[in-house]
Amino acid sequence: MIVAIDGPAGAGKGTLARRLAAAFNLAYLDTGALYRAVGVAVLDAGGNPADPAAAESAARNLGLDLLDSPRLRTEAAGDAASQVAAVPGVRAALLEFQRQFAHHPPSPCVGAVLDGRDIGTVVCPEARLKLFVTASAEERARRRTLELRGKGIAAIQDRVLADMLARDERDRDRKVAPLAPANDAVVLDTTDMDADMVFDRAAALVRNAATPA
Ligand code: CDP
After folding, report:
1. Is 7 near ligand 1, meaning CB less than 6 Å away?
2. Whose C-alpha in 44, 69, 177, 204 is 20 to 30 A from the C-alpha of 76?
3. 112 φ/ψ angles, rounded to the nearest 5 degrees
4. Does domain 2-192 sit in CATH 3.40.50.300?
């Protein structure tokens, strides 16, 4: 059972993916963390995330220890992530790891849930269930601001909104694996839904997808 969750920044993909993973015994991979880690690695080395050679080299030499770092959650890391994510060599370097995780989740998990931008379109087009989770930009900025403040990171909502819109535009307009719903994705607009409602709706879809036709 592979569940693919895609959508723009701050839509609640991570929260949903974690809850589905716990409820259905699935392994969870936050693929955004991979791109964030590459972006932070380039910045740490004094490089420019928009420089394709620096970005690809960081992706090929990515240390998995960085993946748990709280530094990945800042908007600066998100911004660097969306720059390295437009580099084809970076995406190619991270692809196999994501596919391996999806198809060989650590035991005793019975499947995997991955969230990102291109899971349903590129990484796992064969996923049993594809969700495209979205919400209005204002609502997404509100949620992200609360999330950042909850982690002790100072955040101004207007600034978060501006950063998010710039990042969404870059993610949608890039040539390789742009942010887009797969043709067979179920679109969940969560603007007026709380986390429990989103989970209940998605859980019903997972149960349905798990039932042999
Ligand atoms: O948490 P949020 O939705 O804000 O971002 P994220 O999922 O951590 O992803 C950070 C950035 O990584 C995105 O803005 C994309 O540019 C990039 N990304 C991607 O290109 N493909 C993925 N599968 C996941 C993330």
Report:
1. no
2. 177
3. -145, 150
4. yes
Residue 161 near ligand 1, beta carbon < 6 Å = no
For residue 192, give the nearest of 155, 132, 143 by alpha carbon: 143
* Backbone phi and psi for residue 134, each to the nearest 5 degrees, phi listed first: -140, 175
157 Rama sector, left if φ>0, alpha if ψ -120 to 50, beta otherwise? alpha
Instruction: Give the Å distance between the CA of 90 and the centre of ligand 1.
Output: 13
Report which protein residue has its CA nearest ligand 1's atom 7.
Answer: 32
Closest CA to 123 of 98, 151, 140, 87: 98
What is the three-class DSSP state of 175?
A: coil
Stated as kind and residue range, the H or E segment containing 38 is helix 31-44
- Residue 93 near residue 59 (C-beta atoms within 8 A): yes
- CA 140 to CA 157: how far, in whole Å? 10
The answer to whether the beta carbons of residues 147 and 74 sit under 8 Å apart is no
Q: Is 141 in the pocket of ligand 1 (CB under 6 A)?
A: no
pLDDT tens readout for residues 123-155: 999 999 999 999 999 999 999 999 989 988 888
**pTM for this entry:** 0.95
Of all protein residues, whose CA lies closest to atom 8 belonging to ligand 1?
32
- Per-residue pLDDT reduced to its tens digit, 36-79: 999 999 999 999 999 999 999 999 999 888 888 989 988 889 99
